[in-house]
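Hi everyone,

Forwarding the result from last night's run.
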Amino acid sequence: KDSKVAKIKIPLRDVLELDEANLTVRVEPLVTMGQLSRYLRRKGYCLQVTPELDDLTAGGLVNGFGVETSSHKYGLIQHTCTRFEVVVANGDVVICTENQNPDLFSAIPWSHGTLGFLVSVDFKIIKCKSHVKMTYIPCHTQEEYLDAFERESRDMTNDFVEGLVYTKEEGVIMKATLTDEVNKSQVNRIGYFWKPWFYKYVQSFLSSGETATEYIPLTHYFHRHTRPLFWEMEEIIPFGDALWFRCLFGWLGPPHVKLLKKTQTETIRRLYEQHHVIQDMLIPMGALGDAINTFHDEVEVYPLWLCPMALLPSGDSGFMKPVLQDGQVVERMFVDLGAYGVPNVSNFEASGTLRRLEAFVRKVKGYQALYADCFMTRDEFHEMFDHTAYDALRARYCAVDAFPEIYDKISRAARR
C-alpha cells in the first residue's frame, strides 16, 4: 500500500534534447504531455502520437500504455520510441534501442517499472502543420459505422481516425489530415471554453445525417476531449455543457485529475468503483462488432470511444502480439474500445461484470489497458500477456528481489 512505502522525490521533469536532424526528442520521465506538446509546437514539431490529456507523463505512457488517433499509422506511443535509458536493480545504467539490448527495449513498455527505473526516453517527432482538415461521417446502423471505421483506419492517407458510438446502432466516424491550406470560412476553434463539449458537438451530425468537413487548429484538435474529460464531466457537472455555464464558468475547467483524486473520500471512492466503469480494451479489428455488442449487454455505457491502433513488428517480442493463425500474422490492426461512465444495466456488479468482459477480451486475443481495474487471476493475466521475455529479463537484471511483478502492481486481487 502507498501508505507503507517510503516515497523519494526524483524531479526528472526536463526536456533534454531536440534532435532535428533525426527527428527525435529526448525527455525525462516526469515530463508531461502538455509540457512537451507546447515545447515542440514552438519549434514546429509534434509527437507522432500525442495523447489527449496534459497531465500524462512520458514515463507513465511508456511504462504503461498510450494511444491516440494517429496510432493506426504509428502504433502505440511505445512504437514511436527509439531509445530508453534505464537504471536497473544493481544500479547500472542500461541504454536500450532496437539494436542495443533489444530484448529490454521491447519489454520496457507495459512493464510498469518492474524491470528498472526509466530515466530518459527518445520519441520520434514529425513536422506539424497549423490545422487539421476534419471530416465527420454520421452512421445510422452498426454495419455502416463498422465498415466506415475499418475503411478509414486502414487508409494511411488519414493522419487521424476515431469513432464515437452513441447507441448500439449509431455512431460518427471522424478522419482528419494535417494541413496548412485552410478555408477560413470553415475554421472551427473547438477548444474555446464557450464552445460545446466536443462529443456533444459530434453527436449533432447524427441529426443532420450529412457528411461534413471543417478545419480545426491543431492544438484545439489535440485537446478536443480535454474540457469534458471525454464525457466524464457530465457526471460531475450535469449542466456543464449548457450555454450559460460554458460562457460564465467554462474558463474554470477542466479540473485536474490529480485534484479529483486528492479530494475523493474513501466512501466516494468505493461508490465510484461499484457504480462506474473506466476501461480501455484493445480489440482486434475483426472482433469490434462483437465487442460493442458485449459491452452493450454488460454495461450499456455510451458514448464508446473507438481509436484504431496498429501493433507494429517492432513490438512483437514484448507483452503484446498481433493475431496469429497457424503461426502466421493475420491481423495487426486493433481498436482501443473505451468505456467511461455509469452503467445502464440493472445487473451491473463491478467484479463479476468486468471479469466477464476480461474473459471476452482474452477469447478474441485482445488486451486490457492496465491503468484500469483488473480483476483477472494471475493465470488469466499470463494468458492475456506473454511473459516469456519479461520473466527472463527480470532474472537477468536482478529485478525479481528488487521490484514487484507487474501483476502485483496492477491487480486489485493481488493488492489486497
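The CA atoms of residues 128 and 411 lie 39 Å apart.

Cheers,
N.
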